[in-house]
């Protein structure tokens, strides 16, 4: 395996630093919270080691830390912190789509009624 790339966790490390700074938590305090030592947190934040899953669970339980965000960068740092402007845009889009579909439905209904009338008129 000497030819394989060495695993690094730089993206996850950057996200952990961002989280820690947002909540103004020192490496020592984070280590204490997670039941580990500060040098481990330092290695994690350098991208040399991943944060263990049981540590992620502690952060999730205490801060609603979004594990998916930590692992992939997708979503928000804290579960439940959706971007309200995005939600409003989504709702507006859904409303417009609903209005468009309602108009199409009404037009199709008229066409079907006309076809049914034409079939019955020809049958007489």
TrEMBL record:
SUPFAM superfamilies: lambda repressor-like DNA-binding domains. Gene3D superfamilies: lambda repressor-like DNA-binding domains. One of its GO terms (molecular function) is DNA binding. PROSITE patterns: HTH_CROC1 (PS50943). It comes from the Bacteria. CDD domains: HTH_XRE (cd00093). Residues 16-70 form the HTH cro/C1-type domain. InterPro entries: Cro/C1-type_HTH, Lambda_DNA-bd_dom_sf. This is HTH cro/C1-type domain-containing protein. It comes from Sphingobacterium deserti.
């Amino acid at each position: 395996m000497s030819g394989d790339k060495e695993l690094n966790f730089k993206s996850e490390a950057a996200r952990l630093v961002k989280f820690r700074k947002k909540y103004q938590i020192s490496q020592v305090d984070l280590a204490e919270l997670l039941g580990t030592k500060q040098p481990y947190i330092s290695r994690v934040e350098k991208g040399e080691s991943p944060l263990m899953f049981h540590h992620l669970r502690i952060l999730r339980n205490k801060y609603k830390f979004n594990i998916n965000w930590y692992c992939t960068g997708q979503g928000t740092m804290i579960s439940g912190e959706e971007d309200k402007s995005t939600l409003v845009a989504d709702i507006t889009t859904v409303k417009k789509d609903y209005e468009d579909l309602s108009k199409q439905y009404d037009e199709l209904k008229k066409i079907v009624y006309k076809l049914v009338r034409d079939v019955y008129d020809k049958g007489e």
